[in-house]
Amino acid sequence: MGKEQWARADGNARITQVAGDHITYAAGAGPAPRALLGLPDAPPALVGRDGSAKELVGLLAEGGPRVVVVAGLAGVGKSALAVSTAHRAVELGWFGDRVFFLSLRGYAPDGGVSGPQAVQEMLRHLGVRDTDLPESQEGRLALYRAKLAAFAQAGQRVLIVADDASAVGQVRDLVPAAEVHRLLVTSRHRLVAPGFAGRVLPLDELAEEPAAELLADAVLRAWPDDPRPVREPEALAGIARRCGRLPLALAVAGAVLAGDPGLSAGELAERLAETRSRLEALTFDEGGVPVGVRAAFDLSYARLPADQARIFRLLTVNPGPDCRTEYAGLLTGEGEDVRPKLAALVRASLLTEQPVGSGRWRMHDLLRLYALERGEECAEADGREEATDSFLASLVFDTEVAQEVLGVNSPGSSGPGLPSVAQALDWLDTERPLLVAAVGSAADSGRVDTAVELADLLAPYLQLYGHAQEHLLMARHVLAAVRTTGSPGDIAVATCDLGSALWQADDGEATERLTEALALFREASDRDGEGRALTLLGTSYATAGRLEEARQAHQRALEIHREQGFLHAEAVVLLALGSDLQRLGRLDEAIAMHRQSLALMRELGDRHREVIVLDALGEALWAAGRGEECLVVWEEALVIVRDLGYRTRMAWILNRIGLSLLSAGSSHEVRARFEEALSLFTAGGDRDGEGVVMINLGVLHQREGRWTQALEAHERACALLDTVEDQAAAVRALAGTLGGLGRFAEAAEGFERAAAGFAAAGDAKREAKCRQEAADMREAARRPRRWWHRFTR
Question: Is the pTM of this model over 0.85?
């Protein structure tokens, strides 16, 4: 047992026992008042943070960790969440009046509040006068811990909110020893360090709807009757997107709108659409002091070590939405050593790895604009131009390897050191947004040859795998660049490529651009180009229903390609010509053309287009009533697309096989084909494909007497399909199911709606059939009896 100690204090002097020693303070005027409930006001609205607030409240409850760090990008709303949650804890009666708030100003230019200063400030909050403070830091820390221990012994919990810490050193000494107390820290850094056991709660930007709601709330608090939130909801949503759904940016945008009641939300959205001036537009002059996103980012950037700041700047050379670790190492020259520095930027909330462990790094949109500004300022010192050239060269090389392995224009390559077909396709699918953006970036920076080379490598993949909008975006960039620096021949090629992309995207401008390209090729006496333009122009005519013009254009293209000895182009135009003949009802000739095309594709080893030809041949055989032959052809195509991982076309072929089997009455195999197709369409987010398969599954349910399931399938198809013709087909199928259920009046109405849809689509044959079916349903309603119908698309 330790030695017994005694002490006596005179007057108003106090004695505090710390670690077995007695410290006696001189007499004063009595104990200082305690700063009870020293919290700032809770924010008027904590929008979109229900999940985070619930989680944080749970962490402050008994049994939670002693230290919680709310971490996130500047302006993401960390302080608002912490203060609001602290108020909620008070409402729950967890801490009584023992809630204290410290503003640590960790990112201030002067370095903010130090750890010892924070302890001293807490002692003041706890009622210790400056004149009563121990002289040494150790003594003050011991007194602070004794105060918290006394609360714990009395069964009283304490909550300390330490706002805006930048380093563990600012808060380490504040950590309470007693398990019952809580230290809630906000920081732009994910504060982790040896011996500091804090639970990190990362906070991201808001979701879309809460972001727009927060913006509207900022306007309505100033002007409760402001009509703009109701009148311009889409413009407010656009502002929220351009603010990156960052609460600080939303607050600034809201202040701009509130400060100028005559400014429409649409005007502000347009102002923010210009990326180069967006940060400037998100600045609000508050009494001569600029308040905004850039100022907040400045404080975080200023604390970065030089090597991390350089990486932060150079990452913006990558124009894609995220950057893989290997490319970050290439850009910065750090190689395999780059990950620890990327992780440091994550801890500073200037970067995120999404998902964690994926090696893919993302920067917030507004932060990226800020980093780009800083990068351009330091371009020479950073070697930015050299990094850009190396990065683009690497993308070109990697894309060329993937294209060769995939075999989009020739037999695929394989061998040691090369990726598999699945790996090449996965790389292209994953990096597609980056690659398309890189074409635009190269074009915009004057690297036209690189843009053209990368676009040429990418185009076949984008075409074959159904990425029409990205192909179109890329083609527009290339043509704009080539028009300023290219030869007439280069402009002709780029114009033709744009026409092809427009046709793939169902854009009516395709015919005009392809006609222009044809004229340019003829002016340049480029016979190969003329043949290609004719092939594409004919296909565009066919899409517009100008079938005879399409056939003539394709026939001229065939003659040119045979004259030039270009077998691949000949095979492509034979396929197009076969499709023209099929639409014209000349099925035997169409089948012959497709078979010629198929033979050439096999000779050339082009498996991707072999699948397309097999698919078209199967359709022609189906139209000719040769069901068994078409099934064999589609099964051949299915084997190839499985090898290629060509998921979208695989789904359509499975659907066609299902229809073929359905006509033959093979229910078990039909269901398996349709369900596999449905899963592929659903996984790929293809609503049209999903809707078409639901129509066919509903028909299968009808055949097997499952009318309730048929109704569900056809109702789902109606919700998924949105083009006039597809919607009409879905409504017709639904009407048939309603008839089968004996709901004749509803069925008649449905058939009339379907007839109107087919009329709008110009399909007189199906319109007439639906009119007759509607009449049959009205007759059935007058003379009830059981009606069973089979409806196929």
Answer: no
